[in-house]
Amino acid sequence: MATCFAWLLAGAAWAQDPAVVLRFSHVVAPDTPKGLAALRFKSLVQLRSQGRIRVDVYPNSTLYGDREEMEAIQLGAVDMLAPSLSKFGRIGFPEFEIFSLPYLFDDQAAIHRITQGPIGQRLLEGLTRLRLVGLGYLDNGFKQMSAHKPLREPEDFVGLSMRVQPSRVLAAQMRALGAHPVSLAFRETRLALAKGVVDGTENPVSNFWTQGMNQVQSDLTLTHHGYVGYAVVVHQRFWEHLALNDRALIRSALNDALAYGAQIAQTQNDQALAALRQAGTTRIHSINAAQRARLKAAVQPAYAELRAAIGGDLLDAAVQAAQSPLVAY
Ligand code: LMR
């Protein structure tokens, strides 16, 4: 008992003066898959290092928003990020935009055939091009469309101004539907919807709900058309300054936190949808198989856009892997 108490005291002492502080910034609410996985990572690192490493998590754009976070990590002003895979094209890594492709993935298993297979590993390794170390992938879930009317058919989108992440694929997706894509930082989205700067947007329900978008969007259509997931990255400079045992500890804790995130992601989105239904603020619409087929056909130009950016080899391998296992790239 005394030993345990001494350890707790030691841990508390370390927490005051840790050997390493890891600053982890992200842009979503704490009660989302990414927010919860970040907190799980924090607790695992601090426990396993006995407080020698402290993780400071800054959720909901409280430290940096979309635009600033990518600059901040390059400048060493933050140590770890988990940006949406759709946001890497803007900083010179369009390969992650395969995850932005609409109607490519039917479920989380299809996503994992890439993120947990050779293609995903090769892509993480490619981040060295940006002097980033790609440590792993984190799930959120499938996006649903929202606006002030149901969005079940391609013609329903014509003329709408739709917020997207800074992604050429998502912009091409909206243009293919006859909508006008508007790239905004995540933290600016709710206000832009409230003020009518944009008519609608696309989100996993966990983001839609935790940002209060239900108060400024009258209709959510369960299109299940695209995926939001994340790559967890640190800067090479930060990583190279860590002792090898600390790198191993951080990697191990992150792997466990990412597995936890994958386990809870669907539940978090389901719970957000249930809360949304309970709130009664937003009409929730479904689409049938024929409507899904028409939407999928309408957004095919997004694939051409990405093929032009990353070439056919990776794109074709990703499409194959999304539909069947064991495809090497
Ligand atoms: C968005 O900008 O819509 C998302 O990438 C936010 C997030 O990190 O889930």
Overall body shape: globular
The helix/strand class is: alpha/beta
The domain tally reads 1
Radius of gyration: 20 Å
How would you explain this protein's 3D organization?
It is globular and about 55 Å long. By secondary structure, it is α/β, with parallel strands linked by helices. Strands 1, 2, 3, 4, 7, 8 and 9 form a 7-stranded mixed sheet that branches. A two-stranded parallel ribbon has the order 5-6. Helix 2 (33-48) links the parallel strand 1 and strand 2 (53-58). It contains 13 helices and 9 strands. The chain has one domain: D-Maltodextrin-Binding Protein, domain 2. The longest helix is centred in the last third of the chain and has 36 residues, at 244-279. The mean pLDDT is 94. The chain has helices spanning 2-16, 33-48, 66-75, 108-115, 118-126, 168-176, 186-195, 205-210, 236-241, 244-279, 289-298, 301-310, 312-323; strands spanning 20-25, 53-58, 80-81, 132-147, 161-164, 180-183, 201-203, 219-235, 283-286. The protein binds (2S)-2-hydroxybutanedioic acid. (2S)-2-hydroxybutanedioic acid binds at residues 27-28, 84, 140, 165, 186, 203, 207, 228.
List the SSEs and their pairings.
Elements: H1 2-16, E1 20-25, H2 33-48, E2 53-58, H3 66-75, E3 80-81, H4 108-115, H5 118-126, E4 132-147, E5 161-164, H6 168-176, E6 180-183, H7 186-195, E7 201-203, H8 205-210, E8 219-235, H9 236-241, H10 244-279, E9 283-286, H11 289-298, H12 301-310, H13 312-323
Parallel strand pairs: 1-2, 1-3, 5-6, 8-9
Antiparallel strand pairs: 3-8, 4-7, 4-8
Helix pairs in contact: 2-10, 4-13, 6-12, 12-13
Bound molecules: (2S)-2-hydroxybutanedioic acid.
Residues 27-28, 84, 140, 165, 186, 203, 207, 228 line the site of (2S)-2-hydroxybutanedioic acid.
